[in-house]
Design a protein that fits this description.
Order of helices and strands: HHEEHEHEHEEHEHEHEHEEEHHEEH
Structural class: alpha/beta
Number of helices: 12
Radius of gyration: 24 Å
Number of strands: 14
Largest sheet: 7 strands, mixed
Strand content: 15-25%
Distance between the termini: 86 Å
Helix content: 25-40%
Strand order of the largest sheet: 1-2-6-5-3-4-7
Oligomer: single chain
Length: 377
């Protein structure tokens, strides 16, 4: 009988270059380490308690990939932590094109949404950027469209926005924008970043960058107010998953003839239940039109005065003037417009290109020219 040598297993956490011991591996499994759910050794749980093994094997927490078509997304503390996002920020910096001026440090602008977890995550981003030799301009709490607006005006080397997008409130992540406020996507630059996370990190420079707070809310607010002027008198019900967007819209409507009816809505509800609740509010308040703005402040959903939801295809026709009897408005067809199935609309001739408030302003002006109830258009 021959003695067979058991294979030696090397434990290595995803995104890390060093090998860890089995004891450290088991300790990280037990503590719910952020990278364990996407580790190939996560089922090597030895004699850990059964509730930990069930969690690791549960279909509710699969081998989650934080790189999605909508940016970097994951559950706060389960898939994304301050430490893991700090490491990810290091990988991001390795993909920035080096400046022709060797004395010039990269300039990065950052901001975050209104989620409770976002301030914690942005600390990990900012600390890494500074210690890795970047000048950081922090817009702090800011909506995603306002952040895009700021990036397009500041023209930094990179923009990093901490957000969970339209995911549940306990999720977080990053949207990464280039100097023209165009997001890194899959496939593309975001896929390069995903591949980079499996490589060794090389620190490009050893110096400390500067940090400053910036405020651009007034400039963005002025641009939104201009987009809504002039406008006909409307009664509008609005449910917004982003409080900053709702506050700005309330301020804009105070200077107009429109009446805003804010509708509190639980965005954690299933879509059909949420829309049913919103329809009840539209009928109760007797408004002319209803709008649901998603937490990312980019996507919106339109409802007529009867509470009936209007499909995104029909909304696109409204935006292109194809549902308007006024031939002067119909000449606006072939507007460079791109849309998705989630209620987001991009216009090449506006700043920012995608913004729920700017989309709403365009829709209201189309309804004004039609001079009919939305349900009759």
């Amino acid at each position: 009988m021959t003695n067979q040598t058991l294979p030696v297993i090397q434990y290595q956490c995803p995104g890390e270059t060093g090998v860890i011991t089995k004891a450290v591996h088991l300790a990280r499994l037990a503590s719910g380490h952020a990278t364990c759910e996407r580790c190939e050794h996560r089922f090597d749980s030895a004699l850990l308690p059964k509730h930990i093994v069930r969690r690791l094997n549960s279909p509710l927490v699969p081998n989650h990939n934080i790189f999605t078509n909508h940016g970097i997304r994951g559950a706060y503390l389960n898939q994304i932590t301050r430490n893991s996002i700090s490491t990810l920020a290091q990988h991001i910096l390795t993909l920035i094109e080096p400046s022709t001026d060797s004395q010039k440090l990269p300039r990065i602008v950052v901001g975050h949404d209104a989620r409770d977890c976002s301030p914690d995550i942005v600390i990990g981003v900012v600390s890494t950027l500074k210690s890795w030799g970047c000048d950081v301009a922090d817009f702090s709490l800011i909506s995603r469209p306002a952040f895009d607006f700021s990036v397009q005006h500041v023209k930094p080397d990179l923009g990093i926005y901490v957000t969970g997008g339209s995911a549940p409130n306990n999720w977080c992540g990053l949207d990464i924008l280039d100097t023209n406020a165009h997001p890194w996507t899959m496939p593309g630059k975001l896929q390069e970043l995903q591949e980079q996370t499996h490589k060794e990190i090389k620190r490009p420079r050893r110096c400390i960058g500067k940090y400053q707070m910036l405020f651009s809310g007034e400039a963005y607010a002025r641009s939104i107010a201009e987009a809504f002027n002039p406008i006909r008198q409307y009664r509008i019900a609005v449910a917004s998953g982003d409080p900053l967007t709702l506050n700005l819209l309330s301020s804009v409507f105070e200077q107009s003839r429109c009446t805003l009816h804010p509708v509190p809505l639980n965005f954690a509800m299933k879509t059909d239940l949420r829309e049913r609740r919103f329809k009840e509010e539209i009928l109760h308040r007797r408004v002319d039109v209803g709008i649901i703005i998603e937490p990312d402040a980019l996507a919106l959903h339109l409802f007529d005065e009867t509470g009936t939801g209007i499909s995104h295809e029909v909304v696109e026709q409204f935006l292109n003037g194809q549902r308007n009897a006024d031939h002067t408005v119909a000449l606006q067809r072939n507007i460079p417009l791109v849309t998705d199935s989630q209620g987001r609309y991009w216009f090449q001739n506006q700043t920012p290109e995608c913004d729920a408030l700017l989309t709403l302003a365009r829709l209201l002006k189309q309804f004004w020219h039609a001079d009919s109830p939305v349900s009759k258009l």
